[in-house]
Amino acid sequence: MTDEFQPKMSFRPRRMRGSVLAALVAGTMLGGAVQAVTADTARADETGVIRPDTQIQTLPNFVNLVKQVRPAVVSITANIRMDDADEEGGMQGQQQMPFPFPFPFQMMPQQQRRTVEARGSGFIISADGFVVTNNHVVKGATKVTVTLDDGTTLPAKIIGRDPKTDLALLKVSTQSKLRFIELGDSDKVEPGEWVVAVGNPFGLGGTVTAGIVSARGRDIGDGPYDSFIQVDAPINRGNSGGPLFTQDGKVVGVNTAILSPSGGSIGIGFAIPSDVVKNVVFQLQKTGHVTRGYLGVVAQVITPAMAKALGLKPATDGAPPSGALVASVSNSSPAEKAGLKAGDVITTLNGQKIDSPHDLAVKVASLPPGTSATIAYLRGNAAQTATVKIANLSSASSPDGSVGDKSDVGGPRLGVSLSPLTSDLRQQLGLGASVRGVVVSDVQAGSVAEQAGIHAGDVIQAVGNSPVDNPGATVTAVRAALKANQSVLLRVLRNGQSIFVAVTPGAPDDSGASGGDDDND
């Protein structure tokens, strides 16, 4: 961690710090009561002694709630290969991220050369032992164990993982029925509402913290479908995968990331909404992987200048028009078949308001492929509607022209999506005009590419001794070698440095996941 991210600290004189500590202890002895004293209500008797006229406001008491839900909250221990542990968020992965935070907060020391023991949290959602946690808690794990609240340790199998939402589903083996908790309705959560986070930070055992919801729908740039609940409840390392409760004992979020310059909690935490969890867990439980809806538009934010140029009317409160401006429509896509055109402004999807392109992407992705959806949009300020049949993102052609070798049905799969090295990508990656190769735009969970350590953003420059400069040639060369059951040596440009990555056909998926995300972005 670099010095510029260290928090600034100020020191008080020793006597002052003692006074502050005494005040904190005294406040604790009040048993959750807050006393408010104002100059207007304070009065003094004839001796001059001030007799405050206080008002006492009692804070929420979570004792009964915690006692009832704690048996369903578990601690997760994962043995993770060193190369995979380096990729997981937190302080381990900051050097590989485009920003130092926010980051997943599950990380443990990595003194061993081959594997590290990482700890996170999770919670039981069924009597037969299904457990929800974060993908980054168990990614690359060769062994996973779950410890119940009573200390019982059970082996766990990874049923499926979804990197795009950072969720994973486990199954523990047990002869008895387990106590479990229900997923609530995160759409009903409001800023200012009290919430409780339960987890296993720093391996201390079950720990409880409380706070309020700060905001909903936060996009922190961690994934394509970010829509986090922001909370100020203190959340620390090891809380990854733990539940976020409302006062009625329902889980409304999965604690996933924090915004922190120091690695510890500063009161800005993020949880995956339970509505997202329900959809992902259902699919993982049913098929072991997640499919997402596809509309086929490239959309952009409506700026005030753009709204004026398009002649869009402002909202009733004078704010700029909300919605997603369609910049382009993919050929033969559901959007094109429904008649959508560049310049249209999508305002609602199935009656739900669309505030931004990101909002549209999240809502479309949550729709099951094959379902019909109603889109309301503006065309030249005229309100119109269209019915679209949502397609499967994994089988759709990407609007940026990317090619996924996993979209083909025949032959062995590497498990990546490849894009041509366009001028825009060169600029984003900071590459000169002389660099040749193809860009890895996505890596499928559990694939041989992931097992080999290939990352999104890598530039594949050669397969064996043969240089490559287009996705088709790369896929052909890799598949030819894999089909012959040979290891493939790739020359990869990563962060400005050339490295070699060996891909072995039929590499075991030590995570135990039966499938990953089929999306081909």
Automatic annotation (TrEMBL):
Q: Where is the signal peptide?
A: 1-36
Q: Which PANTHER family match?
A: PERIPLASMIC SERINE ENDOPROTEASE DEGP-LIKE-RELATED, SERINE PROTEASE FAMILY S1C HTRA-RELATED
What organism is this sequence from?
Gluconacetobacter takamatsuzukensis
Q: Which GO terms describe its biological process?
A: proteolysis
Q: What is its EC number?
A: 3.4.21.107
Chief localization: periplasm
Which PROSITE patterns does UniProt cross-reference here? PDZ
- In this protein, the active site sits at 136 (charge relay system), 166 (charge relay system), 240 (charge relay system)
Note the InterPro entries from the entry. Answer: PDZ, PDZ_sf, Pept_S1C_Do, Peptidase_S1_PA, Peptidase_S1C
Binding annotation for substrate:
136, 166, 238-240
Recorded protein name is Probable periplasmic serine endoprotease DegP-like
Taxonomically, the superkingdom here is Bacteria
For this protein's source organism, the top of the classification is: Bacteria, Pseudomonadati, Pseudomonadota, Alphaproteobacteria, Acetobacterales
